[in-house]
Amino acid sequence: MLASDGHSKSFDERADGYGRGEGAGIVVLKPLSAAQQDGDDIYALVRGTGVNQDGRTSGITVPNPESQEALVRQVCDQANVIPQQVRYVEAHGTGTAVGDPLECKALGTVGANLRVCPARNGIEPKQ
């Protein structure tokens, strides 16, 4: 599971695991009306979130694309958006030869038109 060179290369054909690291970041979430009232810069709107679990797979490190696909559809339905409208997905992106392609397959199957965003471990729309 750890990359041979210690570097994560999520969603890259050279990926062979993840690199451990320490870091910190902050994202402030607040109701849109409060952010507008406070004069905050608004970078994104969270229209929906969700969680599920993979159920049975062939191993603990092997994701279940059908389960991931179902979650994306559920969250889009609850948020009243179509997958093509999704602008950013915070992906799992372990940088493994098995996990990354299955995660991409799940997102592609629901019709999300996404590409890898190299600046962060997430994916955003193709330009």
UniProtKB/TrEMBL annotation:
Entry EC no(s): 2.3.1.41
GO molecular function: 3-oxoacyl-[acyl-carrier-protein] synthase activity; fatty acid synthase activity
One GO term of the biological process aspect: fatty acid biosynthetic process
Keyword annotations of the record: Acyltransferase, Phosphopantetheine, Phosphoprotein, Transferase
Cross-referenced CDD domains: PKS (cd00833)
Lineage top rank: taxon: Bacteria
Domain Ketosynthase family 3 (KS3): 1-127
Keyword Nucleotide-binding set for record: no
Entry GO terms, CC: cytoplasm; plasma membrane
InterPro entries: Ketoacyl_synth_C (IPR014031), Ketoacyl_synth_N (IPR014030), PKS_Beta-ketoAc_synthase_dom (IPR020841), PKS_NRPS_Biosynth_Enz (IPR050091), Thiolase-like (IPR016039)
SUPFAM superfamilies: Thiolase-like
Listed PANTHER family: FATTY ACID SYNTHASE, SI:DKEY-61P9.11
Protein's UniProt name: Beta-ketoacyl synthase
